Amino acid sequence: MVHLWRTMDTTVRGRGNGYKSIATIAVIAGVYVSIVSVLRFGRFLAGFNCTTPPPDNDLSVSRIHLRIIMNWTLASCYLYLPWIIGNVIERIGDLCGFPDCYFKFTKIVLLTSILNGVIDFWQEVPEICLWNMNINYVENIHFYLHCSMWIISFMIMLTIDITEITGLKPIFYYHLTNDNFCSLKSQQFDRFLSNMGFPGSSCLLIILWSQKFMSFDRLLLAVIWTLGILSCNKTDDKDIKYVVRQFEKKKAWMYYSERISVSPLK
């Protein structure tokens, strides 16, 4: 009987380790897909594939209108996807009994993957443009500005906690300790992330509006996503006070850690 119990316990542990191995491989694949999708989206926003309007425009007005409607649908529907995908993942995960530590990461991977569909189905409208700055030094400024905005946005996420924003920290704790990190997470921090919307949103707004060739489709994307980003930002005084307290704690921790590391040298 004891031998049978030990055999069953070993089998259950082996299956649990097998599930965790599969989940680890899936997480690594999801991180790769997200990075590639974000890089491709950054190239899309930089306008490297934009075409200048042809000299002889023989397209009908109805086709231009169809392309504008297509772009408006893509840009508008993507703003509702975080809410829709989040609810679907939570319901399917609860129904199947999956740990909720995977929900946020799965949501991020799906949202970044869908960006590839937005890029592929996006219809350029070069026949209508606000400005076209096809100058060498302007192109260099445009390139460095976009790169710097992406770097600043990445640094903002690092400062806040990129593992928490991407949903990797709960998965890491779950695989390391077999405990649900979501139940131990600070409610104030979770509230701050949900109210903030997109971290580095100001950088994204600059990227959307700093185009060397502002065609009508890019203008439509910039207007719709600017309104969406501004409406998603719901930070209030409580969130600001929470961030100030966290910075004070980090400054105090850095001060005492420096004193501890330097004091033995005296």
UniProtKB/TrEMBL annotation:
Coiled coil: none annotated. InterPro entries: Nurim-like. Keywords: Membrane, Transmembrane, Transmembrane helix. Its main location: nucleus. It is a multi-pass membrane protein. The chain crosses the membrane at residues 21-44, 64-89, 141-160. GO terms for cellular component: nuclear inner membrane. It is found in: Nucleus inner membrane. PANTHER family: NURIM. Belongs to the nurim family. This is Nuclear envelope membrane protein. It comes from Aphis glycines.
